[in-house]
Amino acid sequence: MLGLNKKDTSLLIVVAFLTLLAPFILNPFPEGSAMAQFNAGYPDLMQRFVIFGIFAIGFNILFGLTGYLSFGHAAFLGVGSYSAVWMFKLLSYNVIPAIALSVVVAGLFSLLIGFISLRRSGIYFSILTLAFAQMSFALAYSVLSNPKFNLTNGETGLQVYADDPQILQGANAPDLPHLFGLPMRATYTMDVGAWSFDFNAGYYLCAIIMMIVFYLSIRIFRSPFGMMLRAVKSNQQRMNYTGLNSKPYTLAAFVISGMYAGLAGGLMAAMDPLAGAERMQWTASGEVVLMTILGGTGTLIGPVLGAGFIKYFENIFSKINDNVLHSWFAFLPDGLEDAVVFVIHPFIGKGWHLTLGILFMLVVIYLPGGLVEGGQRLLKRFKRKKKDTDDAPSGKTEPAE
Amino acid sequence: MAILRVKDVSKRFGGLKALTDVNLNIEENSVHAIIGPNGAGKSTLLNCLVGKLMPDTGSVLFNNNSVLGLEPFQINQMGISRVFQTPEIFGELTVMENMLIPIFAMRDGAFRMHAYETIASEREVVEQAEVMLEEMNMVDKREMHAASLSRGDKRRLEIGMCLSQNPRLLLLDEPTAGMARADTNNTIDLLKQIKDERDITIAIIEHDMHVVFSLAERITVLAQGTPLVEDTPEKIRGHPKVREAYLGEAA
Known about the structure:
The complex is a heterodimer. By secondary structure, chain A is mainly alpha-helical. Helices cover 62% and strands 5% of the residues of chain A. Chain A has a domain at 6-282: ABC transporter involved in vitamin B12 uptake, BtuC, CATH 1.10.3470. Chain B is 37% helix and 25% strand. Chain B has helices at 42-50, 72-78, 95-108, 123-135, 151-163, 181-197, 209-215, 233-237, 240-247; strands spanning 2-13, 16-27, 31-35, 57-62, 65-66, 80-83, 169-173, 201-205, 218-223, 226-231.
């Protein structure tokens, strides 16, 4: 279907199913119950899941296929956000031109940075991209924000003001980002008994876009072009002696992943019309590297899983505090309860980075293929148990998803 | 007619004269071996032919076109394929993919953004790759990762990848180095078969005299960066200068 093989088609269908039903899946606990704080089905967080999913899918096209580790991808995300907000300021609050411009600008910007950075490979390439991203951050934070020429509005962040031109903004169009009149914040809440599910317009826009770009990334992975990118990672020497110029291949991969990042940035601004320089900081670039590695570098679904995993931790784990812990362990004797809470305390709330760090270490050491490899191993073990008597082990090496 | 003409090529590395005034003609459809003791400049010469090194002086003409200053991929597109001393293949890719890549490169040139097609839809390329795999006797290994092949099979695959591009000139850099006897003999048989079945010129750099004398039609002996003699294998075998270069004055 759609030019995909059976396995990829079913993967795409599963992803479509999960993203479209996310408001149900992410809200499994009834409102007001003790577990309700593990619910992640609120619009803001769901939007972030898919937007960072897009960011990581794009990053994986560069890092997963060619092996070039960029430490500056947040620059393209930030550029995308700024472009989108400028579209809001100049044209109208309609998100379509904003998202389109953010992809185009990020593409051009990545062409420039990629052209220079790809003169080197390995660690030098990473350092060059990092340097460019930090320069972009500095530019956005201070240089490009002065009274004479204010492109980024510095520390405050770029936002839409009442006196902005907005030449195409209709008289009765909503005064916040919308898709032909449908505000991105529009949310329909469905109450089923004790449960409550939010269906948010912005989330569904992001989800549909994510499915489209996920489909495109599958096509790229399976295309001759994708094979050439894997050849770059595998053996550049052989590639050059086989009559292939590896430079345009890596540059094309860099620009494609830059456009994915720009798209993610544009969507972020479309959900909340604000762009700040901190989106370009190196920690943001590092985050997408973590997402990709955690989920499974070079796999199709891995980056999305990694993005979801990290965003879930960031938003859910960080909210657990000592009071919550005490309520969980109230059944223990007093002294023991305090002791348990004392031990767990550093790993929750503001300490969620610590938990994430430990999990990341465990994944990198025991599951170099990320969460995807973990899933595959579980599946294999499950299958083996099912046909215990079948003593013919499959000698075939399974290609990575 | 000579397909490759090397004229007055010299190359220095700092104070070391690696090549001094090398003149060499490789005739079309011949098997030409370049032999010489360690440090004679064989690999330097080869690297000057494929675009890895730029000679200080002289010229290298392939099919009457200069190759100097061109990138390796451009030289390959002109019709020169190179087999490396240790097999250079795409280890993480399957054997089939390894075979597809050179065929795509030959058909589409140095770069093509075919990001939306599937590989299976490129029928003719897949068919050519299958034919080549058959010729190399590797059909049963097509889905294996190339890195997990045996040394001999890796060499076979690499030669197959080069041949799939129908090169005019095949350069082999010590193709049997570090191989067991059986693998060496297999490689010799393969090269003989290639020589008999195809319109191809083969230039081979080799250490192993057994390989050289079973394949070559012409032999150039290189010593201290300069060609000593060039002749047929029979004449080279008993040539006093060659014995001297290999075994020292005392012999």
